[in-house]
Amino acid sequence: MSAFTVAQSAPTAVESILWIALPYVALAVMISGLVWRYRYDRFGWSTRSSQMYESRIMRIASPLFHYGIIAVGLGHVLGLLVPQSWTDAIGIDAHLYHSLTMPLSIAAGAATLVGFVALVARRRASALVFSRTTTNDKVMYLFLGAAILLGVFVSWYASGLVGEGHNYREDVSVWLRSVLIFQPQPEYMAQAPLGFQLHVVAGFLVFAAWPFTRLVHALSAPVQYVARPYIVYRSREPRSAGARTARRGWEPTRRD
Ligand code: HEM
């Protein structure tokens, strides 16, 4: 599985709770919560947009956060789900792998963090935007903020920008795959550096909170989000015919 060796002793109670129970409970709450929310609150399944109250900061912070987090997500799939032995087999050793992924990882983490801080500051700065923030969302922002901050820290730590560097593909990644195939090996995560452990706990808390917050909007096939306005506002007044061609997403509705 890996050249890296870990102690094979029985996990302690805390290790079992964190590295066996937590991921399964969090994923079960996430999946069942999403099904429940979709069935009983389909009309509330939204981002609860606040664009109408403030759009100046949002115009920059929102794409920064969203493009950043999409890149971070793709990086997680690559770094956590693709075994190191596969990349070794095609001639990409651990050093080359981290040299190739490090710049992207650091850029994606920075964009996500800056976008997130700006979005939260905007929410706090505008009383109207703040009034649209539910208690569940506030708790979620706490977990998400912790996951992003610790994620940026572990990314810097992994690459040696701070601390000594760490190859998480030999412990965190092996552990996550063992959980996903229902053969959990908590000993791998138990030996990972503390920053990685805290990041993973924060990440699973975000997953558990997901269905009860505005994050549900991320699962609404957001394919058109990239090119369309956040909310389509249309004037009641008919425009003078042929004045200008409507932009995509802004075409007038049919008036019968
Ligand atoms: C909602 C959940 C999560 C969020 C928001 C999140 C966010 C982040 C961010 C912003 C970074 C730094 C940028 C990057 O390297 O891509 C990062 C790095 C990292 N995360 Fe997460 N993460 C989450 C869940 C997880 C989980 C569940 C795991 C493992 C089981 C994990 C493992 C890692 C690792 C190993 C790194 C370092 C990657 C590198 O430097 O190449 N993350 N995360």
Notes on the structure:
The chain is mainly α and 256 residues long. The chain has a single domain (13-226), classed as Fumarate Reductase Cytochrome B subunit. It has nine helices and no strands. The mean pLDDT is 89. Bound molecules: protoporphyrin IX containing FE. Protoporphyrin IX containing FE (HEM) binds at residues 72, 75-76, 79-80, 101, 105, 108-109, 112, 144, 147-148, 151-152, 154-155, 158, 168, 172, 176, 199-200, 203-204, 206.
Give the topology:
Layout: H1 13-40, H2 56-81, H3 84-89, H4 94-125, H5 127-131, H6 135-159, H7 172-180, H8 186-190, H9 194-209
Helix pairs in contact: 1-9, 2-4, 4-6, 6-9
Bound molecules: protoporphyrin IX containing FE.
